[in-house]
Amino acid sequence: MQLFEVLTKKDKKDFLELPLSIYKNDDQWIRPLDKDIESVFNPQQNKFFRNGKAIRWLLKDDAGKLIGRVAAFINEKSSRKEEQPTGGMGFFECIDDQSAANMLFDSCKAWLKQNGMEAMDGPINFGERDRWWGLITEGFTSPLYCMNYNPPYYQKLFENYGFEVFFNQYCFTIAVNARPQEKFYERFDKFSKDTDYSAMHIRKNQLEKFASDFATVYNKAWARHFGNKQMTKEQAFSIFKKMKPIMDEDLAWFVYYKNEPIAVWFNIPDINSIVKKLNGKFGLLNKLKFLWLKKN
């Protein structure tokens, strides 16, 4: 087997297209947009390069066929806060072959060690946790936009190498027309009678106000949890502006107590049902196709 670093334009193309062979018989997989993957490894687009660096590899078998890929990265700012300096690995794709997987994992391990890391976390993203994070071990259904997806055998490849569970993350679904649990109606009856409470939908023409309210609720609810940090109003506004093209005003609720924001229920239509029809591309024609599909 031959392992080599992703450097050329062709290497980058191969890195993006290798998953096509891994998932060719998997109807649940949705090919991510090439631009979303490449932006992770572009220093001009990924702010994590300000305090870190990344590297990518491809793996070929003895016949010269591509059989795997992986990336490793460090964030000096956050890794030094851990009990052990910890680097990351991700964007792992591989055939069902432990020796091939081990070679990819070993390359990450060696590079991280060279850069002063003592532990390896993965599969994760070289960026925020809202994208490309974690390994699926149950519920192999079509992924949401920018979410990881993997074959069931990946768990075996990771565990055989020595990876252990750091934390479990659970995701739940509910049918749009399903009736919520009775406790929701009971609480609504209770709080709707108190005029100090109010609720409203988001409004796209007031994004700055709602972004500020979102940051307030987020910081009080989540910022002190492990691995999270304070969100500024500017950061929230930037996120809201990016979501604006697909935002549905009727799907996002903000709740207030005496006009102070206390709760948010934010739903975004999943665009992966459209993305799967674009074959990873997002040029001008694909953008027009996206807009047409979104309206229909």
Word description of this protein:
The protein is of the alpha+beta class and 296 residues long. The protein folds into 2 domains: 2-171, Gcn5-related N-acetyltransferase (GNAT) (Aminopeptidase, 3-Layer(aba) Sandwich); 174-296, no CATH class. 34% of the residues lie in helices and 18% in strands. It has helices spanning 9-17, 19-22, 34-38, 76-79, 98-114, 154-161, 182-192, 207-221, 233-243, 272-275, 284-295; strands at 2-5, 52-60, 66-75, 86-94, 119-121, 197-201, 252-257, 260-266. The chain has a 5-stranded mixed β-sheet, sandwiched between helices. A 3-stranded antiparallel β-sheet has the order 6-7-8. Helix 8 (207-221) crosses helix 9. It is globular. The model has no long low-confidence stretch (mean pLDDT 90).
Which key terms come to mind for this protein?
single chain, 296 residues, alpha+beta, Aminopeptidase, five-stranded mixed sheet, three-stranded antiparallel sheet, 8 strands, globular
Spatial strand arrangement across the major sheet: 1-2-3-4-5
Mean pLDDT: 90
The low-confidence runs, each spanning 5 or more residues with pLDDT under 50, are none
How many structural domains in the coordinates?
2
CATH level-four homologous superfamily name of the largest domain: Gcn5-related N-acetyltransferase (GNAT)
Quick rundown:
The protein is α+β, with helices and mostly antiparallel strands and 296 residues long. Helix content is 34%, strand content 18%. The protein contains eleven helices and eight strands.
